[in-house]
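Quick illustration, no need to memorize.
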Amino acid sequence: MKLIVEPTPHIRSSNTTDKIMGRVLIALVPALVMSVYIFGMRALYLSIVCMGSCIIFESLFRRFIRKDKEIDPSPAVTGLLLAFCLPVTLPYYMAIIGCFIAIVVVKQLFGGLGQNFANPAIVARIVLMLSFTSEMTYWVKPNVGSAADAVSSATPNAVDGLTAATPLMLEAGEQVPGMWELFMGYHGGSLGETSEFALLLGFAFLVLTRVIRVVTPIAFISTVAVGALITGADVGLHLLSGGLVLGAVFMATDYSTTPVSLTGKFIFGVGCGIITLIIRFFSDMPEGISYAILIMNILTFYIDKFTFPKPFGAVREGRNDDEK
């Protein structure tokens, strides 16, 4: 009889990092297709630039530190998620700076895949927002839907269209898009966050293929819904606008930066929702998803510490010798 003398876990799974990241990329395809349909071909070009830059930065860094040159699909996932957080008009060089921050600073300098303290795309978006505020908050009207009626015939590319605030940034008296337009994404915003329809298709795929669990996304979204309802705000507007669904489904479920236990995942989602509501209602920023997820990423260690189940027979901390 052979004894296993290697670290846990001893139960192997057929799910590899490559397979998981590949499924995440597949889940992001509907949102990418909708972004191209809504904002034009530049959405595709910006996505390709971000994905390619992230892959190149990861490959060069691994070569620099003389590590295994083979890379997994994770930098492509990071690049596409970052692209989804950007306005379609953002200059390419700014997007490349964001890719460098995400891959080199946030991911590789902290040890690589699985060692980063926060979601790389989230941190990169925040840095870009603080560094290039005007460019990161320049939105255009889409090519489809009633919002584009005035410009669709004259502007084949959304980049040439009229500027338009996101639904959460509308001034008092301005008309809020209808629920159908919000759901399909026919309004201003970052290129991958507007179409909740496409994001929910990706969500369903990830759940069915068991890549993620529904606990964190449902807790996150439900907390925002309840908070908006209690305060008398437009629940539909807060659920279907901004990066709520994108963040809840694809960023708040990151394996390495979120809690392990189901209880921890629930606390993480509720915490993200509460912080999002605080930022939306009590700050000058209309959106709070990125900051909420980043703050909860930092708190993940402590959430795990207090919610991770104790092994059977383990002695609880603080017990004296007589109790043992």
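The mean pLDDT is 82.
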